[in-house]
Amino acid sequence: MSIGNSPEDERPFEDDREEARISIGRALQQARIAAGLTVDDVSSATRVRIAIVHAIEADDFAPCGGDVYARGHIRTLAKAVHLDPAPLLDQFAADHGGGRPAPTPAAPLFEAERIRPERRGPNWTAAMVAAIVAVVGFVGFTAFKGDDEGGKAQVAEGVAPSASKSSSPTPKNEKPESPKPDPSDSAIAAAPQDKVTVQVGAPDGRSWISAKDHNGRLLFDGVLEKGESKTFQDSEKINLVLGDAGAIQLYVNGKKIDDDWQPGAVERLTYTKGDPTVG
What we know:
The protein is an alpha+beta fold. The chain contains ten helices and eight strands. Helices cover about 40% and strands about 15% of the residues.
């Protein structure tokens, strides 16, 4: 009788494979060490707070403030330590549920265009628009012709045609109304010239922000909900940290800052009385 391996002996060592799988934080930490970088180096290069870098390397994503910010931090840290962020983002999606929707393949879209039937029914909307335009043109032409003939008849009878109301001169004492300024713009423009004034708004989304004065005193640290705004003033400078710069609208000393910040990007900014140039 031959002796062979039992089915249990031929099963793959699933537990060993699970143990061999490197976590996201461990992978980022090993890549950082291999690149010869410290946590301070990575924080300075990416503008991600040191505490958040330590937390992510320990696989603690709670300080990020949500999955959207966590994915943005993972992508930023991976690029800083020369690591491909795509596998880490896929692993994050698998571990935390959900993830980015898969892109729609291009081939079915083009195929749908090719098999679309060429024969179409009559475009009744275009026909109705054309008919309306023709009617309006005919009425206008008739009215113009009637006015022209009436004017000729008045000239033949020695009566000067009366001027239309639209041609009457505007009285000199009447001035056109100037457009009313936006109250928010007026409030920013009226900011004291001897101070720096920064208004942070989130018109299209929500973002965590932090603001400090020139002494390092914390003015605000929290989430700015969609539609909310905060205004900060200081005699010298304002230090900002934007958790999702792509959702932020920024005004400094009455002028809008038009920077092309990407969604999920973390930005550290400093503004002084002489800005809108970033300090």
